[in-house]
């Protein structure tokens, strides 16, 4: 099988490539150049896709004896991930750019090019598993990335390979060291890859500008003025620009954002609890939508907990009734539905949250 491996320059994708070689496949490595100024996209463990990362990936490919290329996806990444991220915050939403990158770059643009070049599959270093065409959680639940892959369609998953999903992270690092790969102890990237400073508010402010509006309490009393709704997300407690806690002495949290009026609402922590989620653009990863209500578990953050729920799937939306409240759910987040299974929790599908109540 001809396999294209997306090589970020980190330990996970490096071991994924090595395992594909060991399995006897015809392997080619590719590094995605996602920035027109790659030297600006890494600060220690923050950021990715820098010249340093491309060099690390190339050295691993040399050790493995496989062809290696750098493909420029910077324009596509800016349009489909960065610009989407900025516009989503400008609408008062809280997006997950890793979800969009997997959906629109790695398993859409990159996979399409791979198939056009007669590759049979695209392999990545994601911590997830495929079994019988079903997407499942990784063995290492602490590193599980099935959440950010739950937007993939059955056709996309048909051409995907996740070689390390059956292995704990610590063992992956040991394997890399045993193979003589210099990236064995390389720090994992974290936070948002295209904001290496970690200052999301400043990044958004430089692109959206000042759009002042009021911060109000549940009674509509104006407590402060802000410079833009992009600086807030539902559930936020710090940096609200208001003087002290509420009249009851308790902290106040962002409970809602109205993009049309530029209003940020704050309230008590109890105001953050929701029991129903409504999402649009649903994706069923198996390709076959279940009929009737579905008993499942739902997760709304990449590393968040799960709650039992009943999902009702329609053509253009999904309604999820929670059996226990979730706190601080924001429009723009991705909801992912799981079915508990002895062979590993199966991903049923996903949707983008539009409302929560």
Task: Describe this protein's structure.
The protein is an alpha/beta fold. 25% of the residues lie in helices and 30% in strands. Among the domains are: 2-125 and 163-185, Rossmann fold; 210-267, Roll (SH3 type barrels). Helix 1 runs parallel beside helix 2 (51-64), helix 1 crosses helix 7 and helix 3 packs antiparallel against helix 4. The model has no long low-confidence stretch (mean pLDDT 94).
| Name given to the CATH architecture of the domain at 2-125 and 163-185 | 3-Layer(aba) Sandwich
Which term fits the overall shape?
globular
Give the class from helix and strand content and strand pairing: alpha/beta
Radius of gyration: 21 Å
CATH homologous superfamily classification of the domain at 2-125 and 163-185: HUPs
User: First CA to last CA: what distance?
Assistant: 48 Å
Helix percentage: 25-40%
Q: Percent of residues in beta strands? A: 25-35%
Read across the widest sheet, the strand sequence of neighbours is 14-17-16-15-18-19
Order of helices and strands: EHEEEHEHHEEEHHEHHEEEEEEEEEE
CATH domain class name of the domain at 2-125 and 163-185: Alpha Beta
The biggest beta sheet is recorded as: 6 strands, antiparallel, barrel
Work out the helix count: 8
Unreliable spans are none
Can you count the beta strands? Answer: 19
CATH topology of the domain at 2-125 and 163-185: Rossmann fold
Q: Mean of residue pLDDT?
A: 94
